[in-house]
Amino acid sequence: MRKSKRVLAQFTFFDRTGIQRFLEKQAQKGWLLEKISSYGWKFRRIEPQKINFAVTYFPEASIFDPEPTENQKRFWELCQHTGWKLASHNAQMQIFYNEKENPIPIETDPQTELETIEKSAKKSYLISYYLLTVCAVLQMAIGVWQFFTDPVEYLSRNSSLFSAICWTALLAMCLMEILGYFKWRKKARKAIEETGAFTETKGYRNIQLALMWFILAVFAVFLVTIGGKMAVIAVISAAAVSLVASLVWGFSSLLKRFKVSANANRIATIAAIIVMSFGVTGFLLFAVIRGIVSTGWLKDKPSDTYYYKGMEWAVYDDELPLRVEDIIETDYEGYSTSWYGDESLIMSKHNAYQRPRMDDLEQPDLQYTLVKVKVPFLYNLAYKQMLDDFPRNFGVTYKEWEIFERAVEIPASEWGADIAYQLYLGDEPQNEYMLCYSDSIVILRPDFNMAITAQAKANIGAKLGGVIVCH
Fold first, then answer.
1. What is the pTM of this model?
2. What order of strands is seen across the sheet that includes strand 405-410?
3. Is residue 225 predicted with pLDDT exceeding 80?
4. Count of helices and strands (H, E) across the chain
5. Rounded distance, CA 106 to CA 103, Å?
6. How far apart (Å, rounded) are the C-alpha atoms in residues 164 and 144?
7. pLDDT tens, 93-137?
8. Contact 471, 352 (CB under 8 A)
9. What is the pLDDT of residue 469?
10. Which H or E run includes 158?
């Protein structure tokens, strides 16, 4: 039978009522709070019994204090004389327990108790959530900018979706804490004015825990969907963040053991956060990236290599949904085929290249971009962006530039498409096309000398118009 356990309590700082009830239930199950740390709340086994708990706040205390202040010690002694034993403390929060059936409360004046909670909340609790809120808003703003800049690229990356979900959940958690605190404070002030009674606190522990487990579940799905090698990099990155947090916490704890003052500890800890964030994380990422580059771990291994004009060239043999051979007849076998891109749960974007050897450049090449829309209501968003990007004029209008690229609608049925466009340079048609199917969009750029016959169009529609799974 285990003698101790750790619990991820995740209580709101000011939720005095919720913490007391939780600890009383634990005592009835045979567990008594022993220590509060960043690794959870530690409990030791006792005989199951009914124990009263009291959560109080001491504004003078700080998480950086090397030891309790004299005023804090006197407060503990006063509580001890009235039967309240200190279970644990964490910065301003002090938790006591009393085994008597009806003990005298530690706090007897609701107005003083409310003011104490307000002072304690202003010292660290609210500041930390304000900073987290600003950070979340900035990260979400970056995501919104990326989305509006290139929505197809953004929605095709699982990392973008994961980041958006996590920062949204963090923002929701922060707003829940901040707004919940001010809502409770307003209600408490009113109750004291009207009845002189202290208002019970209300936390959001279950919601917070649900959000945390939700983020972990999303991270697990993210790791599964991005593939083995990228998943390893994601895990290493998460481990680097955890390592930095552990090192900073350990450094601050070491300073407290050496009796360094709270102000000096605070400054040194902030400096350590900055240095270790850039130093440790940078070193790990540099080491990983260097290892990847030196070993070619992330690169697709070529099927063959050859030399041309003193340089080594790679030949790839990726599977492509559409090849030059599907458009024209050719017996050329020296092609290098590449297929790469991103794929998320809602959209994918892949680029395909089929190129001849450098010493056979007279052979036709082929390149195209294939976007697969897995969520129907996002189709129009992808369609509009790709139609805007199809002509490569970089925002230049006809009035500013007489020779410009434009998309001209052409008959789509022969391509097996719903809508089709051909690129025009001024009034000259180019051998480049945009083909829109029910759930996919293709930007097709065959060799400029490659003739696209009616049979070739039918082949292209058959190859690219259906459900395509190609990795």
1. 0.79
2. 336-343, 347-355, 366-373, 440-446, 428-436, 419-425, 405-410
3. no
4. 11, 15
5. 9
6. 9
7. 999 999 988 888 888 888 999 999 999 998 888 988 998 899 899
8. no
9. 43
10. helix 158-194
